[in-house]
Design a protein that fits this description.
The chain is α/β, with parallel strands linked by helices. The protein has helices at 24-40, 61-69, 154-166, 173-187, 201-217, 223-237, 240-243, 248-253, 281-287, 290-304, 330-339, 372-379, and strands at 2-3, 6-7, 13-17, 45-50, 74-75, 82-83, 87-88, 102-107, 123-128, 145-147, 256-261, 270-277, 308-315, 320-326, 345-347, 360-365. The protein folds into 2 domains: 2-237, Alpha-Beta Complex (inorganic pyrophosphatase (n-terminal core)); 246-383, DHHA2 domain (Diaminopimelate Epimerase, Chain A, domain 1), CATH 3.10.310. The protein has a 6-stranded parallel beta sheet with strand order 7-4-3-8-9-10. Helix 3 (154-166) runs antiparallel to helix 4 (173-187) and helix 4 (173-187) crosses helix 5. The relative contact order is 0.10.
Length: 389
């Protein structure tokens, strides 16, 4: 059984593991696929796992609201609410589980993050919509590897898997509401001009809505009802007043990923961290002086051994993106900015009193379609070998 991350089992354990950012899509996919596997597998314990500490679940307001709105059992007041019957990264050490009994199912990513590298031999299935890094070919069969680039939401793929594994689950109000919310958030309410997606995702979302989700949400089972639910999720996600109450460290950790980029020369490469927050950067810059912000960014980078730290920021109503960049190495900083030239960056004024903002730069992004999924491959250009002089 699993209750707030406490796992008790003498037999096989199946962990459905979401990605390290633990956005709503990742959380929903872990919970929904675990429910389907629990109905399908005979005997083993199936546990959905969210890859952040339980105390950090509050950092993404939309995931808290979506799971709570879907009627999941949980505890805590307001944004401090967390779901029961799931495990968080600080509650379950996968590395300490027996490799003979552990089976790991990856959702919303197809390569384990560094902290979980040692459990690679235990990965037995993958459901994902990112570029396939072709890992775990010895442990994941072709039939258990569902990786399809260009799908807007991994929840769409999970819904298709549930249809094949245990279709009656797609009449469950809670599960349909979660899947619908994740799909709408990841496809911008099925708007193909705003977010790449497959044509079949709209019928999947409509199926979730026309099922019991509409009645649970108390909205019409129509495009208008779907739009109302999306607007509700978006309003929670972009609650600027509440987000500005979070300290800078929490904002950086809210939706965060990092990569160790090998270089073509000597040394251990470049470690890059990229956070993402639905908060207008001018509001954040107005909250505190730039020197203080630079010190907090520097402390965060130092604690994680980062050479380059970026925070992607978006003003949803204005459809404006921003990038806040911190890097003490001038050459690396200039190279990162050069690589991001395709983003159409416009420098923003910074308060550099007392030189405290050294290494900190802010930009408006001219290309609204640039998300972290677009930015990370661009930054991997830092790993390219430098031409010989």
């Amino acid at each position: 059984m699993v209750q707030k991350g406490i796992v008790c089992s003498d037999g096989p354990i199946h962990i459905v593991l979401g990605n390290e950012a633990a956005d709503p899509d990742s959380c929903v996919c872990a919970i929904a696929l675990a429910a389907a596997l629990d109905k399908t597998l005979d005997g083993p314990l199936v546990v959905p796992m969210i890859s952040v500490p339980r105390a950090d679940f509050k950092l993404q307001l939309d995931r808290v609201h979506l799971l709570r709105r879907a009627g999941l059992i949980g505890g805590g007041e307001g944004p401090l609410w967390t779901p029961d019957h799931v495990s968080f990264s600080d509650e379950l050490s996968l590395e300490k589980l027996s490799a003979d009994s552990l089976n790991v199912h990856l959702v919303d990513h197809n390569k384990l993050s560094a902290p979980y590298a040692s459990i690679a031999p235990c990965v037995t299935s993958i459901t994902d919509h990112h570029a396939d890094e072709e890992q775990y070919t010895q442990t994941v069969s072709a039939s258990d590897r569902l990786v399809e680039l260009g799908v807007g939401s991994c929840a769409s793929l999970v819904a298709e898997r549930i249809q094949a594994l245990h279709a009656p689950l797609l009449t469950d109000p809670s599960l349909c509401t979660m899947l619908l919310g994740a799909i709408l958030l990841d496809t911008v309410n099925l708007d193909p001009s705003a977010k790449a997606q497959k044509p079949r995702e709209a019928p999947i979302a409509d199926e979730m809505l026309l099922g019991p989700a509409a009645s649970l949400l108390n909205v019409a089972a129509t495009a208008e009802g779907r739009a109302a639910f999306f607007a509700e999720l978006l309003a929670v996600k972009a609650d600027t007043a509440l987000l500005l109450r979070f300290p800078m460290e929490d904002l950086l950790r809210q939706d965060y990923k990092e990569e160790q980029l090998p270089t073509g020369g000597q040394g251990g490469g470049v470690k890059v961290g990229v956070g993402s927050v639905v908060l207008p950067l001018p509001a954040l810059l107005s909250r505190q002086p730039s020197p203080d912000l630079a010190r907090e960014m520097s402390a965060y980078a130092t604690a994680r051994g980062l050479q380059l730290l970026l925070l992607m920021s978006v003003d949803l109503p204005a459809r404006q993106r921003y990038v806040l960049l911190h890097c003490d190495d001038q050459l690396l900083r200039e190279e990162a900015i050069r690589l991001m030239d395709s983003l159409s960056l416009t420098p923003m004024a910074m308060d550099a009193a007392d030189g405290g903002a050294a290494g900190l730069l802010a930009f408006e992004v001219g290309n609204y379609s640039v998300s972290r999924k677009v930015l990370m491959p661009i930054l991997r250009g830092l790993a390219a070998p430098k031409p010989a002089l």
